[in-house]
Known about the structure:
Layout: H1 18-34, E1 38-39, E2 45-47, H2 48-55, H3 60-65, E3 68-70, E4 76-79, H4 84-93, E5 103-112, E6 124-133, H5 138-154, E7 160-166, H6 173-184, H7 193-198, H8 212-218, H9 230-245, E8 251-252, E9 264-272, E10 280-286, H10 290-293, E11 301-307, H11 308-318, E12 330-333, H12 337-352, E13 357-359, H13 366-376, E14 380-383, H14 386-390, E15 393-398, E16 404-408, H15 412-422
Parallel strand pairs: 1-5, 7-8, 12-13, 12-14
Antiparallel strand pairs: 2-4, 3-4, 5-6, 6-11, 7-9, 9-10, 10-11, 14-15, 15-16
Helix pairs in contact: 1-5, 5-9
Amino acid sequence: xxxxxxxxxxxxxxxxxxxxxxxxxxxxxxxxxxxxxxxxxxxxxxxxxxxxxxxxxxxxxxxxxxxxxxxxxxxxxxxxxxxxxxxxxxxxxxxxxxxxxxxxxxxxxxxxxxxxxxxxxxxxxxxxxxxxxxxxxxxxxxxxxxxxxxxxxxxxxxxxxxxxxxxxxxxxxxxxxxxxxxxxxxxxxxxxxxxxxxxxxxxxxxxxxxxxxxxxxxxxxxxxxxxxxxxxxxxxxxxxxxxxxxxxxxxxxxxxxxxxxxxxxxxxxxxxxxxxxxxxxxxxxxxxxxxxxxxxxxxxxxxxxxxxxxxxxxxxxxxxxxxxxxxxxxxxxxxxxxxxxxxxxxxxxxxxxxxxxxxxxxxxxxxxxxxxxxxxxxxxxxxxxxxxxxxxxxxxxxxxxxxxxxxxxxxxxxxxxxxxxxxx
Length: 424
């Protein structure tokens, strides 16, 4: 290990890349505002039991992937591996349900999972998600699909696919679970070790296994459709009817389940051909029992989450989402000494007006400063020449067309106006 190497599964986002992140973050804020969502920010670590009870102890995340530690007060804490359980905890702790319903929340921030790093998938990754609490309306299931689709479209992404299923509720799932156990038991020797350990604890998780031998067994596994209770069947039918009425293309996937135990009824996933085998760019579903599981009163809810790195990877694969490189409004060219002091004063004023003013800190020659302005893409240079300063003025040169004009330093508002217009 060296001090100049970042931990495995983490990433640096610096100049040249961060502009793309900023552009995506602004798109997220715009789309969420259009749908009436408010931002929620939760701690990056929570009590471990929140995820054990919320996500489920028989899930990959809880069993294998959580970053858990004991603090100085002997409390078990976990870096958040997902955003829904913390959002529900915040909903309960801050009594958000006391106001107007439904409560619409979105979050954006780092999550942590100890898994094998690969393209677009890190141990510290960024997740954008939304949660709607307080209504069982199937239209909210659909809106949880529509909002990310609007985001993808706003970013220029095409070629994505919505897959959807219903996994029932605690009333109708037991009979399906039993049928799955009866189906898989004769094939137990062909299942991977994870599936064998979950067969009787959580047989639905077997449907999500990607191991080839398990996939072969899955081919003949029973589907949940005929086990759905009247309430779940009606709910799912209404979800599909809304999708049809709104012209949303989707694919029924009877084997689609989610990796968390809290899901009920509708589950869905959005995939992109740009990402190969690991093609998911977002997923979600309804979780009507989670609020009660975490100590609240029965409260229906639905949500969605997308890994930002994977979404950016898909966008970059289509080369349709680009950010304009940031550039100074003006580069202040000085000769050192008194001219540098005057340049610093002007820079301070312009920055106070929200304008990017850059100047030389390396005592370079005028020629080198002009080259630096060019490299940065500065639209203007302001030259603090000795003769001009004697008249209390500077020369402002447009780097696009070479035109120059003299600006009186007593009229910095005029300078700010000219520079402000160049960014429009």
